[in-house]
Amino acid sequence: MWKSVYQKYSLIKIIEQYPQRATLDIIDELNLPRGSHVLEIGRGARILAVALAQRDYIVNAIDRVRAALDLVDRCAIKVGLQERIITDIGDVHALDFKDESFDLVLALKVIPWLHSPGAALMEMLRVLKPGGYAIISVENRWRLNHILDPRFTPTLSAISETVNYIRERLKLKKPAVRASFPLRHSIKEFDKLLDSMGLNKSGGLTLGFGPFTLMGKRILPDPMGKKLHHFLQSMADRNVPGIRSTGSCYLVLVQKPVPVSTPTFGRDEPFIENERPNN
To answer: For position 149, which CATH number holds?
Structure first.
């Protein structure tokens, strides 16, 4: 399958598809029961929604753009799965679903474009059933192709931003219009955010290497870039230090904790709280 994909698509297209394919692999490993309810948020719904409906899941796909959802509807009708795929306009910051409605929530390529990632994560947590899963992707700040390019490397970019800010404050330089999105997170930073939301991380990986550039200019032809990406991705998949955390996309699987029931004691019985084991 991957051989035909590498032959057909450009390097950028291959890297864009990696999170969706990896997500389907993760979902298959979760082995959710047939009829499980899945919420697919934002871009990529057309591919994932149909694939999940084919696995006998009920999928609610939401997006802020109606045209994107129309594509999902047409694909669902084409394959005869319209009864398992429900589409609607929605905002991840204020989901129009009841608490604990879904067994699985998917948010690929969504967080980097949000003005409040924390609020969105809280909404995902709210609509997840206890024990339910979420698969989320973010842009990795420490991606290898940016680390190696002086124009994009995070360390030099931070220094450059500081220098420009000082020059602007001293009126030595006109204020520049800076792009606010997409937001990029380090793995440690995003893991900390997930933990603060009460989501238990079950696993994470980085995906996609390239295109490689020098001062923003591509230095490898597409066929060579594909081979290098494939080589580096295979190293990341084997958890090779220095490579495993430098893919372009950070894909993480988290689980909503199941509340621990408190034992009921008689009125006169003392309640003794058990000491928590050390992690």
So the answer is: 3.40.50.150
